[in-house]
Design goal:
Layout: E1 3-6, H1 10-21, E2 27-30, E3 42-45, E4 48-51, E5 58-59, H2 63-69, E6 78-82, E7 85-89, E8 92-95, H3 107-118, H4 121-124, H5 132-140, H6 142-157, H7 177-186, E9 198-202, H8 208-218, E10 222-223, E11 228-232, E12 237-240, E13 245-247, E14 250-253, E15 262-264, H9 268-274, E16 279-287, E17 297-299, E18 309-311, E19 323-328, E20 342-350, H10 356-369, E21 372-374, H11 376-379, H12 386-403
Parallel strand pairs: 1-2, 1-14, 2-10, 7-17, 11-15, 14-21
Antiparallel strand pairs: 3-4, 5-9, 6-9, 7-8, 11-12, 12-13, 16-19, 16-20, 17-18, 18-19
Helix pairs in contact: 1-8, 1-12, 3-7, 5-6
């Protein structure tokens, strides 16, 4: 084959469909599961779709991405939403981002938070720290750190937060002290708004429907139940757990690097560095009760609750009911005794550990020299949303098609 694509999640499916749309048909996709979609898969639960990989939505901010995806699931099959997400804190549900919306709290709480933010290191001229926990206090002040940021991030990423770096924090909404003060005075949010401020969600299906349609377009160019367990850079091949071997001029890997139980032809220090990459696993659990809220999702920093987020299905999926929780699997056992639908995503979030940028830069650069390309959330070990994954995939596919 000209191209061998590992994984039929968003990155793999977009790359393959881009090839097909450009009359390049010498490729094959290997997928470990029985269906396509990766973390964006959906399942029929209690009469309506439920996204088993957690909450996934299509951001409106990348029109070229959306135009490409609408070829497979037309725009008229999507509803358009303004984001309504909340944070459950102090017996209230405050709009996200928190620091832009503390005006929704009582006046005494507003004063306490404002005093704390004003004294934060970023507002007093203190040097920016390199440790993640210290950065939280430096950026937000002690009160937001202790009430929200520390407990929430511990629930989502684990107790040892200082294993995380600070290089990825531009992903967070940036709200200055002046923005926060102005928000309190004007009773509206100021500052940089979060991703998915406006988003699309299918009218009749879960988010996974989009990727199933893209997979259907590929026909027999996807092989399912093919769990890749080894890669050989010298022979330019991979092997699956059923003993089959596949070779190609170019290998596009969108699967987690730690899924390669055997790696041949790569320098030992690079192979060893893969073991340093960390990730978190998340369990989703469905509840049939409707909630009295207009929010599509709610964050829960309270350490007494195991889950860190709930998705209020009936507020974005038409004609549905109920909600589902998302919980770091380290905090709960996989209980198989109750009747609630549950699904465990082993690979949910790549963790932004301190050495990760150095590891991935070396790993991806060396692999690229051997015509093996890491792509997407797991191929690049980056916490990409699906729309950014599609954009980066289109750019790589366009480049490779152009030069080859």
């Amino acid at each position: 084959m000209k191209y061998l694509i590992l994984g039929a999640g968003p990155a793999g499916l977009v790359f393959a469909n881009y090839l097909l749309a450009n009359r390049k048909d010498k490729f094959i996709v290997l997928e470990a599961e029985k269906e396509a979609g990766g973390l964006c898969r959906s399942a029929e639960v209690d009469g309506s779709p439920l996204d088993i990989g957690g909450g996934h939505f299509l951001d409106v901010r990348r029109p070229e991405v959306n135009d490409f995806l609408f070829k497979y699931m037309p725009r008229d099959e999507w509803d358009h939403y303004d984001r309504d997400s909340r944070i459950a804190i102090h017996d209230k549900f405050i709009s996200y981002p928190f620091e832009a919306n503390i005006w929704q709290m009582g006046i005494d709480d507003q004063v306490a938070y404002l005093k704390s933010i004003a004294a934060a290191g970023c507002n007093t001229g203190a040097e920016k720290p390199s440790d993640f926990v210290d950065w939280i206090f430096w950026k937000f002040g002690h009160k937001i750190a202790e009430d929200y940021m520390i407990p929430y991030n511990q629930k989502m990423f684990g107790q040892e937060l200082n294993q995380l770096g600070t290089y990825w924090l531009e992903k967070l909404p940036n709200v200055s002290f002046e923005d926060t003060l102005r928000s309190c005075l004007m009773h509206e949010a100021y500052g940089k708004q979060p991703c998915h401020t406006q988003f699309y969600y299918p009218k009749e299906f879960g988010y996974g429907e989009l990727w199933l349609r893209m997979a259907k377009t590929l026909g027999d160019k996807i092989e399912y139940n093919k769990h890749v367990v080894s890669i050989d850079f010298e022979k330019h091949s991979v092997s699956t757990d059923d003993g089959q071997t596949y070779k190609a001029d170019n290998i596009i890997t969108t699967i987690p690097w730690m899924e390669f139980h055997s790696i041949a032809g790569m320098p030992a220090e690079l192979v060893a560095s893969i073991a340093e990459l960390k990730f978190s696993s998340v369990q989703v659990k469905y509840f049939s009760e409707n909630l009295d809220t207009k929010a599509q999702w709610i964050y829960f920093p309270n350490p007494e609750l195991s889950y860190h987020r709930i998705l209020v299905r009936h507020n974005f999926c038409p004609n549905s009911k109920g909600y589902w929780t998302e919980t770091n699997s380290d905090l709960i056992p996989m209980d198989t005794q109750d009747n609630h639908f549950k699904y465990l995503n082993k690979y949910a979030y790549p963790l932004n550990t301190i050495r990760k940028p150095e590891i991935m830069h070396k790993l991806l650069a060396w692999s690229k020299e051997h015509n093996v390309y890491g792509l997407g959330r797991w191929g690049e070990h980056q916490h990409y949303n699906s729309d950014l994954t599609v954009e980066l995939t289109m750019k790589l596919a366009e480049k490779l098609v152009e030069i080859q």
